[in-house]
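Input:
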Amino acid sequence: MGAVKSKRMPRAVREQQMLDAAVRTFGQRGYRAASMDEIAELAGVSKPLVYLYLNSKEDLFTACIRREAKALTEAVRAGVRTGLPADRQLWDGLQAFFTHTAENPDGWTVLHLQARTHGEPFAAEVAAMREELVAFVTELIAVAAREAHRNPSLPEGEVAGLAEALVGAAESLAAWANATAGVTAREAAATLMNFAWAGLGNLMDGHPWSPPAEADAVAARAVT
Amino acid sequence: MGAVKSKRMPRAVREQQMLDAAVRTFGQRGYRAASMDEIAELAGVSKPLVYLYLNSKEDLFTACIRREAKALTEAVRAGVRTGLPADRQLWDGLQAFFTHTAENPDGWTVLHLQARTHGEPFAAEVAAMREELVAFVTELIAVAAREAHRNPSLPEGEVAGLAEALVGAAESLAAWANATAGVTAREAAATLMNFAWAGLGNLMDGHPWSPPAEADAVAARAVT
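Output:
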């Protein structure tokens, strides 16, 4: 990274350098083990300046979460062009998601792991981002279901459940892809698209998976 | 609940009562807000006895995570009978999973939310349980892929990715089902089975979802 020390740099630029250094340090060391000394050194500024700009380690971490959450949701939205068929929009969105998480592995670790592993108020910041992604996917599935001629009325509750499942699958897969050598963003997106769309597509065409009769009876007993 | 105060109760029984009370309190109040006074009162024992048996709030929370993680993985394994077709095994496993998380909402909150939201060493306990579930699903998909005659060799990396996606989807969906009125365990299991199996089934039959040509080119640029 090698940030340059300069007294003439505008505050906004310096703050971004501090956040770059903080995301990298929090992502690699974890919230507790990360030291403000290390972050200041990596950003090429003095520790008092970090405190002056970002106030405390907790506030710095919150600022990291907000910046990374905003960058991720913006990347996904920017990757999708409305007006295209739903499967194409989902494919574009998934590629944008996995490309962003692959290119910003420390940012993703901060969002997916660190922010949820270190209590409130951090977890609430990530929950807000997650809700936005779920809402986005819910709308995508609802539009696709309305477009599908054979089964125009996929129930609302089912759509919400499918969106939750898809977002949970994407989160899980992004963490796995970043931790597994040789898995590209495109491969991760294709894996999820295969998993999700072939299934969703069948569902919208009125071809759900049918439970076997015996399992049905067992299930009925289990849930009553 | 209404635990009965009795001096003749064996230690193991008392400990389970304390853990019952602790899971309920941690699940509903959160780790930090939960008080040892409240847990002791709910268990019908004195606070010193809780400390004598479980040592500290942290150790008590760890004991809750271990017990709930063991109960969940055992419920899933018990729900699945080997020797049946893979889709039937997955359906049985998903029903066992969603039935268990629906019947033990506080236990699931402790595992999925509280344990991951309050740092180490708790998060590591849940990670171990998750690895076991992923390994179980990976094996299920690998067996199904070998059985499928049209595409006997789904690549190992693809199988691992699909298992990660499926477990992430199940976790996400269980939290949503418990938070959403009127969603039964059977409906949650059916939603995920529809989502997952129709997709996986196509994949194993050699019918992956095909990306559009233009998206392909965009993706190739994005990941290089």
